[in-house]
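Hi all, a correction to my earlier message: I attached the wrong file for Putative murein peptide carboxypeptidase. Here's the right sequence:
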Amino acid sequence: MPALRPGAKVAIVAPASAALNASDDAAQWLESRGFVAQVMPASRTRQDVPYEYLAGSDADRLADLHAAFEDPDVGAVWCLQGGFGSWRLLDQLDFGLLRRHPKPFIGYSDITALHLALQRHAGFVTFHGPMLAQDLLAGKREPTESALFAMVTGQMGKGAWITPPMNSLPTELVPGVASGRLIGGNLALIGALIGTRNDIDTRDAILFIEDVNEAIPRVDRLLGQLAAAGKFDGVKGLLVGNFTRLGVQMDDAQAQGLLYPLILDQFRARGIPILAGWPSGHGDPNLTLPLGARVTLDTARGALRLDQAVVV
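and the right structure:
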């Protein structure tokens, strides 16, 4: 997949919820970093009740995605924010078009639906990374921005380590080293797509999960759903990202620890390495992860190694 080049055009899309008045601010942010911004039309709109949680209509949001990928001048397709509604586009995506025009696609949260579909049917690496309105305009801490650009511009090649900053060190729940395809994203979206043509393929994978606004009993139920569906059977290693706003009266860093017994209940007997508290997802900072890429998880090092080039 081609790397994002200096001065390239970047398409701003809103495949899920609206972030009114944010797309033009995002364009200024991109241009201040030397890129040419192309604001796709649906990112400036919001649907009426009862679909006010969506940006444009399904047809308009889909058209924006297709146009952004098809345009040879666009070097990356970057989501404005998450929210709700990406799943509504999956059955109409033109995967043939996407396969013919691979380019960095960046987003997370509700965008997980698109990541899973692209992994299943398009076959190129996509980037679970910070979104323009939700993260970068909101001022999330470094290395949120620099890690994303290092990955999509090709500064991080095969053999490079993705390492959290010292103030965001993860927790080694089960020690070990494992290699596989990195796959996953938002736990609720992974659960929502079980049984569909876009559900997650976890065979021989390093599974990554994160979420926000899911109370601990619901996280437990989601983990149980994936286990019952056989989605943990072929997993080689587990990377647990940020779980925030868990509905308990303590800060997110403390609250995440309450999930660890639930995770160990599901995974301890599987004998796979588990690294938790990894700073990707709805936290600050938000490190970029290359979904679909071959990686090695090393819990003692608290890091991931890229076992392939993700852009060239």
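Sorry for the mix-up. Residues 213 and 242 are 11 Å apart (CA to CA).
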